[in-house]
């Protein structure tokens, strides 16, 4: 069994325990996004990209405070230590962390970051936001809540904001944070769909016919 197939089998059981915002369907969509971006990035190491996509949320800080699952699976794959380190670096650069993100230094990191962020915006991004908010018991919206501009990683992780607030603190920012040309192109329509959704949501909340 090659590394990608073996990794997929190992990670699936982990993602199947997560809520709908970070389940294996999320991984499948990010994988498709990465495959699309890879067509425009021929110099990228495809195996590194594919493995990083599969592994990027197994030790997500929203669900666990250790890297045990990530390290356990990496150790089971037939990889050089250099490639394991590269995959760790790619995964570490994916997280937004309240705007305190690490630099995506390699083309592989840029592809995986954009692929993951594309799944955070648009129609799927909207659905995922409310799925996560529902799983965490968060409000749909809170007009008294102020959008945070500057925050630490801890503040971003620990404060339970309403789902709509998350759009203004992260999702609406992602279009301009894409780091591949293809990612930027793909983000445009998804961004506009979110803007339209929020506009319609406000009209319905305000009782505007």
Give an account of the 3D structure.
Keywords: Hydrolase. InterPro entries: HD/PDEase_dom, HD_domain. With 209 residues, this protein is mainly α. It is built from ten helices and no strands. It has a single domain (3-205), classed as Hypothetical protein af1432. The longest helix has 25 residues, at 181-205.
Chain-wise SSE layout:
Layout: H1 3-15, H2 24-38, H3 46-55, H4 68-76, H5 81-92, H6 107-118, H7 122-135, H8 153-158, H9 163-169, H10 181-205
Domain HD/PDEase: 19-130
Protein name: Phosphohydrolase
Pfam family, one: HD
Please give a handful of descriptors for the protein shown.
209 residues, mainly alpha, Hypothetical protein af1432, 0% strand, globular, HD/PDEase_dom
């Amino acid at each position: 069994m090659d590394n990608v197939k073996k990794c997929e089998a190992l990670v699936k059981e982990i993602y199947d325990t997560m809520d709908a915002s970070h389940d294996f369907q999320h991984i499948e969509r990010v994988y498709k996004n990465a495959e699309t971006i890879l067509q425009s990035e021929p110099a990228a190491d495809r195996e590194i990209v594919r493995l990083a996509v599969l592994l990027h949320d197994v030790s997500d800080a929203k669900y666990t405070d250790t890297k045990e699952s990530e390290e356990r699976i990496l150790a089971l794959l037939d990889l050089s230590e250099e490639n394991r380190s590269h995959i760790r670096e790619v995964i570490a650069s994916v997280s937004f962390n309240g705007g305190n993100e690490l630099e995506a230094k390699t083309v592989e990191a840029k592809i995986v970051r954009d692929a993951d962020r594309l799944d955070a915006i648009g129609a799927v991004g909207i659905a995922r936001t409310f799925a996560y908010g529902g799983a965490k018991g968060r409000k749909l919206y809170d007009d008294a809540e102020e959008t945070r501009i500057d925050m630490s990683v801890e503040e971003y992780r620990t404060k339970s904001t309403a789902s709509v607030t998350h759009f203004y603190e992260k999702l609406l920012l992602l279009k301009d944070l894409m780091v591949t040309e293809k990612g930027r192109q793909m983000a445009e329509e998804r961004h506009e769909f979110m803007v339209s959704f929020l506009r319609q949501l406000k009209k319905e909340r305000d009782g505007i016919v």
